[in-house]
């Protein structure tokens, strides 16, 4: 009887401890987070790099189409040359959103360096062969719009030792906007993000 009581108490303690651990998580407001930045690349770094790039594009006039209207942009290759396993789409998506909101640029998802970003564009066109689908509603031939501009880039990382206790990590977001018709770079930008911290801080 005593063993059963002790076993029951141990189970209750374990369950109570497990429940307490579940309440440790804290919600962070990405727009009002005042905590110290990390040495690696975080959401605020991508936000800063994307905002800087878009503001420079807009102020340079590179995305102001003569006669009005919007340029059609396609995303080319953005290379991650850092020590971190990061998704470059996080940067590109923010740039795309800001450019779309500016009314100057729209991005095609039907064309991409590795195929269509949205495979449904091609899949929907296969409905032309279906007898079950009203052909009046099926996408017609020759309707996909070819891109005017191509966005490519590279993110690089350079580590420097300031002293025995301090490291400096430099990130460079390098982007190029190319006129596909002429092959000329309409705009190029480089946004540096520099961080300094304890040498024991992991940056990848």
UniProtKB/TrEMBL annotation:
- Any Pfam family: LpoB
Q: Record's InterPro entries? A: LpoB (IPR014094)
Q: Do you know which Gene3D superfamilies this protein is assigned to?
A: ABC-type transport auxiliary lipoprotein component
Q: In terms of domain of life, where is this protein from?
A: Bacteria
Keywords on this record?
Answer: Signal
Q: Where is the signal peptide?
A: 1-21
Q: Does the keyword Signal apply?
A: yes
- Classification via NCBIfam families: lp (TIGR02722)
Q: What is this protein called?
A: Penicillin-binding protein activator LpoB
| Taxonomic source organism | Halodesulfovibrio aestuarii
Its taxonomic placement starts with:
Bacteria, Pseudomonadati, Thermodesulfobacteriota, Desulfovibrionia, Desulfovibrionales
